[in-house]
Amino acid sequence: MRKMLFLATTILAAALSASANAEQKEVTVWSWFVQSTMNKSIAAFEKAHPDVKVKYTYYNYSPEYITALKAAAASGSLPDVIGLQPGSLTQQYRENLEAVNERAAKQWGDKWAEKIFPVNRKQMLMGNPKGDENYYIIPQESQVLCIWYNRKVFEKLNLSAPKTYDELKAAAKALTDNGYIPMFQGAADGWQNENVFLMLANQFSPGIVDKAQAGETPWTAPELVEAMKAWKGLFDDGIFQQGALGAHAYPTGAQLFAQGRVGMMALGSWWMQESKFPPPLSEFVQNMDGFDFFYLPPVKDGNPASPPVGGIDIGYGLTKNGGKNPEAWTFLAELTNGVGLQEALNDLNDLPAFEGYSPKGDITDHVKEMSARFMADLPKAENQRFASPAVAEALDNALAGVAAGSIEPEAALATVQAATEKALAAK
Amino acid sequence: MRAGSTIAKVGRRSASRASRLYLFVLPATLLFVVFIAYPILWVAGQSLYVGTSAGAVFAGLANYRTVLGDPTFWTVVRNMFLWGVITIPVQMLIGGLLAYFIERHTHALRGFFRTMFFLPVVTSVSVISLVWVQIYAPYYGIAQEYLKRVGIVMATSPIGDPETAIYALIIVNIWQWTGFSMLMYIAGIANLPSEVLDAARIDGAKGWRLAVHVIVPMLAPATKSLLLLGVIGTLQTFPIVHLMTGGGPNRASEVFGTFIFKQSFVLGDTGSGAALSVIVLVIALTLSLIQIAALGARLTPAARQHP
């Protein structure tokens, strides 16, 4: 009798446990997105969907995240949702991703894509095979590239945000003479070099890099050669710090900038999040009091200042595995255009990819004003992303070679042209 | 009849014993097949295909031709050669000298010195890279702070100049791994038979003569081990380069590890990444076999004593 009772209790307990497990659904997510902010987004999601548990795995982007994705894709063990950048990263995993068009239309209505800023929408399709109008990435956040400057240091040295190249050079000299790093460039990192080059190239001819990577304009076009020469000039004219080619923007440059030892730095709207990091914060970072931004002034007479350049900061994709888990899409939708996004914005992580959002909570007027300026510029931003990683890699090498003086601008751009032709032929 | 039956029984027992003995090597064999042989064969297979996993097309040796025709490959070969011929002897020399002086001339502080010189070996490469990037930085860097006092101003960072980047990285590697060479030599010195050293001293050998003509030859097994490990370590170089220069500027400091990583994971060209991996495997295997043939397989003091 006792045995029977024990058996019945065990079966009941197992059944209850199974039922509890069945009720608690799980979504798995991998990304390089800041863990503290993601935790806030997940908490907001789980509050709104108490029956779903989100398991987030954070990776450093390189090499950890991209190697983990590769291994998981090869073994068919990708999580439900993965963090993506538009263009090359999304395209590498396109075969492992669900097209989200139908789910998005059902969730947000047929015109959902129109609520996404144009530059982001363009980037969502980057690198798709001809005729494939499916979206494999939903953007969560956007960014606008700019030159941040330390306004307290500028004020101390009687400088103002430069409006001409001469003013930029004069500001760099004044900063250097007073023991500051003029404009910190982490030129050992390809991404920061690409960003500055995009600012320059779009100043000479808006949209020209997009045309060049699409094969519509040669990379050796005069405007791009001029932009490459201007890039070299930033090193030769003392605007970037000495030894920039051996420096990294993160963590070195960002730390020095936050500490007030740097005058200017080419970053983007994401820099605002520094003010939300755990204390102690420097007087410059506290409420972003020490910082403001400008766009790169004309590097040649007759040029306009650089237009805003930007696009998707981070997006997410629904994997084939995630396609089998209905809760995975629910989470992805809330993360990119719902409670999850709002939490990320409140943390000043970056700008939204969908219209109709703004950061809320404990934010100063100065930050609100800068955020509003970025938001006003976002709809007219030029594209910052590359469809082919081989083209981006060739441009990175060309920029480093020209900066080091080991290759001439024309020859360097010819290598980018060759890489573009090869990539387009392979497509 | 009885004798024949006995022989048959012994034969069966022997065969059964042999088959039981084979069972003991089964776990190691299984681990080798699953974690070493299969991945190698899989990578070798991948090197014959172009395209993505879903749309891969058999391309024969096309990936090998592409890789060998890429100028970056030959930059990598040059860098790896420099890396090997500089780091291995320099690490051995400094490590050997440290070991000799620590073992022979320190007493109370022996443990302290051993630990201090070995510390970089067990320090995270990420930390080492961050610190050395700061050391090399001109204008605001650590080295610059000291050089300033003697009137030297660094114009560029050694890792930011294509001409010097690889040498700057080699210095970091030597700094990190010399402690390992030191440890190997300390083990070698500790195992030296005292009667041989005493005999040498009685014969009048001391100081430099004792070190060069007695101790150094007797440390040959440790030297051979370091040579073999150095060559393999050279071919496996990745984190320092990835973290400090990313193989740049303009691929000037690219090594096999970073080149394979870029091809496979950044550019998504798994085929050429796999071809490169196979080439590195063949190089490593060839160099190891040459070394074993030339220097002998007896690499450790223990092996020397118990051939």
Automatic annotation (TrEMBL), chain A:
One Pfam match: SBP_bac_1
Stored InterPro entries: Bact_solute-bd_prot1, SBP
**Annotated Gene3D superfamilies:** Periplasmic binding protein-like II (3.40.190.10)
Leader sequence segment: 1-22
Q: Which domain of life is it from?
A: Bacteria
In which compartments does the protein localize? Periplasm
Keywords attached to this Swiss-Prot or TrEMBL record, sorted alphabetically, are:
Periplasm, Signal
Q: Name one GO cellular component term.
A: periplasmic space
Can you tell me which family this protein belongs to? Belongs to the bacterial solute-binding protein 1 family.
Name of the protein described by the UniProt record: ABC transporter substrate-binding protein
